[in-house]
């Protein structure tokens, strides 16, 4: 059986990477839009409605427009943008989120995939909330280090200037208004009642991302230990093909004591670490922002939705 797939935003960073995944598939027929009609609403609407699955790899406003163009009840939309991640009627495209999430993605014709920072944060935190270790009203903070491809074509062009301006050569914290667009989905899909204080940092490497969540053990449920934090994560992701919970205090993965944020690149994998002292823990989730952070995750959502092997085409 062959499925018809259209990528709206096929020339963008996420869309191009999805195309690379699809090119290797024999079960997919890719519907292409002529280059000069990429933004033609009538042609987009025709192809969106001809598709079994349409990926939206667009700015938020264009994603909302695309969703409004759908008249075919069989078209399944998988939206990579921020537009629908907490909108009722849309399923969150993170199969590992909780029991039942795969069934929701399978049944839904509207799937909103997580943001790259949010994917890592949610995967690090949700099991701790579900296990009762992290109270829902906890005051949590998080830092994300990310490559510049997370900012799409415009940020890639900025970072690929030659020579690279000095201010772009060092890591750059941003989102300092503390209203990053991923905060709503971070709360909605972890169950936290308060938004985390979240600081992303973009730096001069192409891709790779790691979100760190520091925890004072005294702020967790009574008696919580690093072992309990690690065990909750390991139990939540047992049997998950794309999520590896690394050994507690996994010094062996550090290079001379340093953490490698690029080590999941070119995979759909998320590695989760728990580093700890007697009184504190640091949970780190690492992924490829264009893999499990965007395009790989979108293909995984499609596979789950279509009921084909979930790992097809993904490593
Ligand atoms: N990059 C990443 O790591 C991640 C990105 N995302 C999200 O995925 C979406 C796409 O991001 P990304 O690929 O990085 O962005 P890019 O800027 O690289 O690509 C967006 C593409 O959409 C096209 N486009 C803009 N408006 C329209 C329109 N009205 N009709 C058709 N096409 C249009 C652009 O055209 P043109 O080429 O002319 O500019 C461009 O090719 C965004 O919402 C982003 O936030 C999500 C997770 C991670
Ligand atoms: C480096 C950089 O700018 N990253 C983007 C997030 C990329 C992402 O996940 O995008 P969406 O939520 O838009 O889908 C940011 O922090 O806004």
UniProtKB/TrEMBL annotation:
Supply the InterPro entries for this chain. Answer: AGPR, AGPR_dimerisation_dom, AGPR_type-2, NAD(P)-bd_dom_sf, Semialdehyde_DH_NAD-bd
> What keywords would UniProt list here?
Amino-acid biosynthesis, Arginine biosynthesis, Cytoplasm, NADP, Oxidoreductase
EC number(s) per UniProt? 1.2.1.38
Q: Which residues form the Semialdehyde dehydrogenase NAD-binding domain?
A: 4-105
The principal localisation class reads cytoplasm
Q: What reaction is this protein's catalytic activity?
A: N-acetyl-L-glutamate 5-semialdehyde + phosphate + NADP(+) = N-acetyl-L-glutamyl 5-phosphate + NADPH + H(+)
* GO-annotated molecular function: N-acetyl-gamma-glutamyl-phosphate reductase activity
**Pathway assigned to this chain's UniProt record:** Amino-acid biosynthesis; L-arginine biosynthesis; N(2)-acetyl-L-ornithine from L-glutamate: step 3/4
Question: What is an example of a Pfam family matching this protein?
Answer: Semialdhyde_dhC_1
Q: Which residues form the active site?
A: 116
- Tell me where in or outside the cell this protein is found: Cytoplasm
What SMART domains has UniProt attached to this entry? Semialdhyde_dh (SM00859)
Instruction: Please describe what this protein does.
Output: Catalyzes the NADPH-dependent reduction of N-acetyl-5-glutamyl phosphate to yield N-acetyl-L-glutamate 5-semialdehyde.
Sequence similarity: Belongs to the NAGSA dehydrogenase family. Type 2 subfamily.
Instruction: Tell me the PANTHER family matching this sequence.
Output: N-ACETYL-GAMMA-GLUTAMYL-PHOSPHATE REDUCTASE, CHLOROPLASTIC-RELATED, N-ACETYL-GAMMA-GLUTAMYL-PHOSPHATE REDUCTASE, CHLOROPLASTIC-RELATED-RELATED
Cited NCBIfam families: argC_other (TIGR01851)
Q: What is this protein called?
A: N-acetyl-gamma-glutamyl-phosphate reductase
- The organism encoding this protein is Pelomonas margarita
Provide the gene name from the record: argC
């Amino acid at each position: 059986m062959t499925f018809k797939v259209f990528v709206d935003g096929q020339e963008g960073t996420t869309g191009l990477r999805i195309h690379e995944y699809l090119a290797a598939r024999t079960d997919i027929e890719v519907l292409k839009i002529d280059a000069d009609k990429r933004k033609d609403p009538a042609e987009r609407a025709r192809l969106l409605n001809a598709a079994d699955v349409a990926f939206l790899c667009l700015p938020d406003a264009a994603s909302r427009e695309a969703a409004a163009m759908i008249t075919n009840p069989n078209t399944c939309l998988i939206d990579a943008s921020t537009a629908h991640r907490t909108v009722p009627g849309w399923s969150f495209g993170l199969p590992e989120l909780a029991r039942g999430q795969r069934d929701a993605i399978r049944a839904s014709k509207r799937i909103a995939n997580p943001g790259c920072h949010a994917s890592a944060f949610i995967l690090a935190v949700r099991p701790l909330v579900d296990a009762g270790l992290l109270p829902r009203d906890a005051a949590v903070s998080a830092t994300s280090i990310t490559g510049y491809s997370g900012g799409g074509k415009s940020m890639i062009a900025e970072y690929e200037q030659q020579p690279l301006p000095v201010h772009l050569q060092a890591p750059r914290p941003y989102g300092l208004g503390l209203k990053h667009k991923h905060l709503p989905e971070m709360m909605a899909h972890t169950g936290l009642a308060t938004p985390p204080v979240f600081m992303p940092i973009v730096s001069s490497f192409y891709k790779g991302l790691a979100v760190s969540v520091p925890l004072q053990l005294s702020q967790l449920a009574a008696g919580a230990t690093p072992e309990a934090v690690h065990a909750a994560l390991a139990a939540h992701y047992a049997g998950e093909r794309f999520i590896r919970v690394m050994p507690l205090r996994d010094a062996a993965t550090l290079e001379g004591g340093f953490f490698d944020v690029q080590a999941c690149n070119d995979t759909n994998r998320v590695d989760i670490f728990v580093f700890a002292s007697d009184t504190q823990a640091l949970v780190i989730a690492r992924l490829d922002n264009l893999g499990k952070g965007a395009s790989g995750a979108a293909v995984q959502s499609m596979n789950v939705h279509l009921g084909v092997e979930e790992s097809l085409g993904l490593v």
